[in-house]
Amino acid sequence: MRIGARLMDQGMNGTSVGHVNHSKVGYINGIVKKKRCNRRIRRHRALPFPMALQDLFHACQDVFKGPGTVPTPEDVQRLCHILDHMRPEDVGLSQDLQFFKPKSKTKGTPRVTSTTIYQCDNFELCMFFLPSAGVIPLHNHPGMTVFSKLLLGSMHIKSYDWVEPQQVSNGSTMSSKLRLGQVKADGVFTAPCNSSVLYPTTGGNIHAFTAITPCAILDVIGPPYSQEDGRDCLYYKDTPYTTNAALNGDTIQPKEDGERYGWLEEIDMPANAQMDQIEYLGPQVIENRGR
Ligand SMILES: [Fe+2]
């Protein structure tokens, strides 16, 4: 079954997306074929060759040279410029898909679906599909730079960076694992909007997404998560920072700089962090094209 059909199925009857080995994933051309007489949908036919995705791929090849790479401002500008102009159709999506209808409902806990467009040791291109009220809980990106482009929908994003030097609660009534984070983003983003970037230590490296309407987000991650290389994904629970915060004996001074802070506590992987994986069969990147 193709991506559009799978996502439509999910939207209509709440069934989860099938396992990659048991389902095929297509793109909007597949839907166009089924409804060839429907002019409104045909308008969203993807271009035969998705230049934007290919440009993005080549830029990633140039920019990400492995662990330790943090893109220069010029490289960030190059990647953001491409991402800012990308449309859902560049990766085989359309707002006409049933999944993205605002009234589309899922049964039970809304599960997030992900798909990988391309992955190598240096970077990964992937997408996440969040049904309404779907959540990607608070998690980090150790040593990584992540470009995110919201392609469809509306979502709330909250993000933190660690406060340095490290400030850890030594209160007796709360866990000593609490570490102070500074709020970097806490607001609603609606597509079409520009891409955002987080870096290893700045830009909101620890973030959470909550879908207000069904969403699709395209991520460029460099380098990808790797347990072997010490880039495992950790999850957190946040508690608003207050100056008295019931932190008995805590020596942290009240924050009066107008910034917002939160205590972050590492937690086990929450149940809603589990995602369904689907195969990507949208427009493909061609590894040696134009090189
Ligand atoms: Fe993330």
UniProtKB/TrEMBL annotation:
Keyword hit for Oxidoreductase: yes
Q: Which residue ranges traverse the bilayer?
A: none
Statement: the UniProt record of this protein carries the keyword Oxidoreductase:
yes
GO biological process: any one?
A: detection of hypoxia
What EC number(s) does the entry state?
1.13.11.20
According to UniProt, the reaction catalysed is: L-cysteine + O2 = 3-sulfino-L-alanine + H(+)
Give the highest taxon in the source lineage: Eukaryota
Q: Which CDD domains match?
A: cupin_ADO
The record's listing under Gene3D superfamilies reads: Jelly Rolls
Q: Which GO terms describe its molecular function?
A: cysteine dioxygenase activity; metal ion binding
* Listed InterPro entries: PCO/ADO, RmlC-like_jellyroll, RmlC_Cupin_sf
Where does the signal sequence lie?
none
Q: Which cofactor does it need?
A: Fe(2+)
Q: Which UniProt keywords apply?
A: Iron, Metal-binding, Oxidoreductase
| Family assignment from sequence similarity | Belongs to the cysteine dioxygenase family.
Protein name (Swiss-Prot/TrEMBL)? cysteine dioxygenase
